Amino acid sequence: MKSLSLGFSIAILGTSLSVAQNVNDTVSLSELLVTAPVKVEVALTPMDVTVVSSEQIEKSTESSLLPILQNHVPGLFVSERGMEGYGVSGGSAGTVNIRGVGSGNKVLFMIDGMPQWAGMFGHSNADTYVANGVERVEVVKGPSSILYGSNAMAGSVNIITKRQRQDGFTGKARAMFGSYYTSKFNLMTGFKKDKFSAVVAGQLDRSNNNRPGSDFWLANEYIQLQYSASSHWNVGTNVDMTQSTANNPGTIQDPLENMWTNIFRGTAQLYANNHYDKVHGGVQAYINWGKHKLDDGNTPGTPEKNYLFNLTDYNMGFALFETINPWIDNDLSVGLDFQHWGGHIWNTPKENVYDPETDGAFNPSEAWHHENEVAGYLIMQQGFLHNILSLNAGVRLQHNSQYGNIWVPQAGFIIRPVQQSEIKFSFSKGFRSPNIRELYLYRPANSDLKPEYMLNYELSYRQTVCEGKLNYGAALYFIDGKDMIQTQMIDGSPMNVNTGKFKNKGFELDATWHFHSKWQLYAGYAYLHTDNKNVLYAPKNKLDISLAFSPDNFEFNLENSNIWSLNNGNPDSTVSYSLFNFRAAYTYPYKVPVTFFVKLDNIFNKKYEVVYGCPMPGITVMGGVELKF
Fold first, then answer.
1. Mean pLDDT of the region 182-191
2. Which of 7, 43, 51, 319 has the greatest CB tally within 10 Å of its CB?
3. Helices and strands: H and E segment counts in the chain
């Protein structure tokens, strides 16, 4: 249940409906109705956007969003180390790269517009991005910093939660069981009466995982309340909480014992939206908080550590935003953002555990830190010739309590030469503020660090033909990254400094073809060239193909994912692999429809490693049943 980066208020899409949506699935306008807080309509910006629909999410039968995004968004790749769960302590799992940029939390995840990175270490929490209760996901490939500031350097992922639109009660329940004693349960129900609506959802996942010592457990709860105060205003609140425990056995080369992470994360927001003929916008207040406890583990045959690491963190703020239509075909968006983020770390002793390295002494290693950021932005788009041509330009000024000011410009244009055709060009700047660990914690820390930043140049084309049955697109990009934070030896000691550079360039292609009423074919390809040979989890070539067949009450889907030249941390070579997955489902059309399904992943039992030293599972089987009411 979640939300995105270049928020959408599709209500004023009237003049843009002739523009083909940059999506992998045909989505009608009614399905894109948005009632969550939004800043600027993505359809009116020159950015390259991919929308993953609720239909794609539901048909995948996945409980985590990240595998779904990887299969449906060209240029996006996620690192994995096992069948279930990502964790946050070691293992390099759950890193999301867009166009080769992402490690160090350079892709911003949001739930209904709320930033989802931890306030102390600045990282995302991949296990909290669950699929239950998600209406769609909007992925901006390229900097979104003009709207969202830090951490949207490489792009943004807005997870938009479901809204209850029909009167009365509706819902669904699903249970799944499969390989490695894996079980998954989720439930979602909604209610609407008059001006009030509510959605409640819950999810529970458990698995022994494909490697001994990698057991995983997760629970997620979500509630959303909304009230339409008038035809022009609606107010609402939502709360999303996740608890998880992930065990990590280390790598084959460097195994570990007693390494585990226990996480509680919560996020909540209050919002009010307005919509008038010439003005629409809103106000949003939010908080994202977490409590982590973990054991860093020990090498087999050595004593275990005599302490546990503890962390509490927070990321809170508010946003004010309005879009004004002062004259025909003009949109002027203005906004003000404030963020306060930080946290507390400390160690607690384990009873009856002796550490010979410290002669049993316990180091509390306690610290508190926080940062403040305030920003304002302005974006204008002007249409010409009945919106055949639209020009877009904007700027953001952000002030940080540690490094001062940073300017973020963006400019571009959209050309619609014929109906259902669109050409976009954009220039944009993205940045990432140094996190508290890089600034203040542990030996390489440097309190004088400046933000990392990159300049992005992008040209995209999208076309819909054959009465909407065929949708295809292409994108070219060039990225110039500077001031990357790296650790170097300064006067004989390691120190974090702004010294790294990189240049990425590439292209992406995708097409969705409904060539028959019961058949659909999708293909997405991404090519990446980077001058940074040390970048991890960013394949040079990525190709995803899926074929869907839906006769009567049956559904069959065959997926093929191909990765070439992936640096997975192996010092000797890159890796390539090809995976085939299959899903079959049958829906019994009763008063309460019942769907029975089975999912087979890696059906040819391919041996591969996304993270070096962490073998991925061979063929896995999951089966289950779903009720809709």
1. 96
2. 7
3. 4, 29
Cβ neighbors of 434 (< 8 A, separation 6 or more) are 402, 403, 449, 450, 451, 452, 485, 496
Q: Which residues contact 211 (CB under 8 A, 6 or more apart)?
A: 82, 249, 614, 615
Q: Would you give the DSSP letter of residue 18?
A: T
Q: Are 112 and 2 a contacting pair, CB within 8 Å?
A: yes
Can you say how many angstroms the Cα of residue 404 is from the centroid of all Cα atoms in its chain?
A: 28
Cβ of 393: how many Cβ atoms within 10 Å?
A: 16
Q: How far apart are CA 92 and CA 430, in angstroms?
A: 23
Q: What is the 3-state secondary structure (H, E, C) of 483-506?
A: EEEEEEEECCEEEEEEEEEEEEEE
What pLDDT digit, counting tens, does each position of 306-357 carry?
899 999 999 999 999 999 999 999 999 999 999 999 999 999 998 888 777 7
Each residue's pLDDT tens digit, 259-291: 999 999 999 999 999 999 999 999 999 999 999
**Which SS3 state, helix, strand or coil, does residue 179 take?**
helix
CB-CB neighbours of 325 under 10 Å: 15
Q: Would you state the pLDDT for residue 442?
A: 86
Q: Which of 228, 222, 218, 233 is nearest to 199 (CA)?
A: 222
C-alpha of 43 from chain center: 19
The backbone torsions φ and ψ at residue 58, rounded to the nearest 5 degrees and listed phi first, read -65, -40
